[in-house]
Amino acid sequence: MRDNKSRLSEGMNKKVLIFDCDPGIDDAIALAFFSGVIKQNKNNYDEYYIISTWGNVPLEKTLKNSIICKKIFDIPVQIVRGKDKSIRGDVIFAEKVHGKDGLGGYSEKYFEIAKEEKITDLKFFLDNLENQSSEIEIIATGPLSSTYDILSRKRLRERIQKVVWMGGAFFEDGNITPYAEFNSYCDPEGVEILIEFAKEKKCVYFVPLDSTKKTQIKRDDFLHILETVKNKKVREFISDITENAKVLILHDPLAVFAFFFPDLVKTFTSYAEVDKKAFRGRIYSIISPNQYLEVVYDFDRENFFRSLVSSLNSI
Ligand code: BDR
Ligand code: CA
Questions:
Q1: How many C-alpha atoms does 198 have within 13 Å on its Cβ side?
Q2: Residue 20 Cβ contacting ligand 1 at under 6 Å
């Protein structure tokens, strides 16, 4: 990671971190993780943004859930209203996994705290960002429809230093079709543009099902680990939203871990393509040294849970 001095000498006056997500139960836990880590490393970035994108549930719900997470986890971010559909224009949701509201039926309980939040429009946000000279980094844990808009703007694209995205299935079956992972299926055009960007800059990490499936944990065991978290509100919220699940897969928190702790994940480099037609969202990949895409295939599980808990204690 470059320091402030080298950034300033290149004319980049700020460092901006964008979290593009579709909360979503595991997105919500990822946002808690994110909040704790940025508080532990608070000097690394100047500004933080959550772009709320359609995905697990429709946009208005992911937006509401992002606000709830911002308040519960005290995240120092501005919230941006992202895209409400795929680049192609269609949508499918994952309400069976996340509940109709995206938070396991609990968004109503936290509705009051979601009021009175100023939301920025995506176009306005990107226009403004274009007029700055900040470095940009992105964590994405949902369909890539909003990230597509960032990558489509040349003046933003050239300032992006790193993107970590939870998505894709490389050597695993899919979870929405036999071949495709959900985020990848939702917006393959977004995946394609991110792969194109990876070819240009070699600063893109995919965190696919191949590694996220290894985060699987029984809900009871997870709640047991969280007993050491001092913030009761945070503990209660996570317990609420996971109530209907016996087993959790922490897909999106692993993307946060890979972003902030790259030394604790294992990657291979890949030549990759995405299918946009018959096998929509399927990733075709050849592992080969010195390719352009970093793919996280494994990680230190003990460290993952230790970092997560330690972050929740920093909220
Ligand atoms: C991905 O799909 C969503 O349901 C999760 O939030 C995660 O981002 C896993 O396939
Ligand atoms: Ca997600």
A1: 23
A2: no
Segment 173-181 mean pLDDT: 98
Give the span between the Cα atoms of 110 and 114, in whole angstroms: 7
Q: Which atom of ligand 1 is nearest to the CA of 255?
A: 8
Tokens 């352009």 correspond to 292
Indicate which CATH number applies to the domain containing 81. 3.90.245.10
Residue 194 CA to ligand 1 centre (angstroms):
18
CA end-to-end span of the chain:
24
Query: 56 in ligand 1 pocket by Cβ < 6 Å?
Result: yes
* Number of structural domains in the chain: 1
pLDDT in tens, 264-293: 999 999 999 999 999 999 999 999 999 999
Contact 140, 147 (CB under 8 A): yes
The response to whether residue 101 sits with its C-beta less than 6 Å from ligand 1 reads no
pLDDT computed for residue 192 by the predictor: 98
Selection from 205, 220, 187, 166 nearest residue 31 by Cα: 166
Q: What is the pLDDT of residues 37-65, one digit of tens each?
A: 999 986 689 999 999 999 999 999 999 99
Cα(32) to centroid of ligand 1, in Å? 16
Range of the domain at 223: 4-312
- Looking at ligand 1, which atom is closest to the CA of residue 142? 8
* Whole-angstrom distance, CA of residue 204 vs CA of residue 294: 6
**Buried (b) or exposed (e) across 23-48, using 16+ Cβ within 10 A?**
bbbbbbbbbbbbbbbbbeeeeebeeb
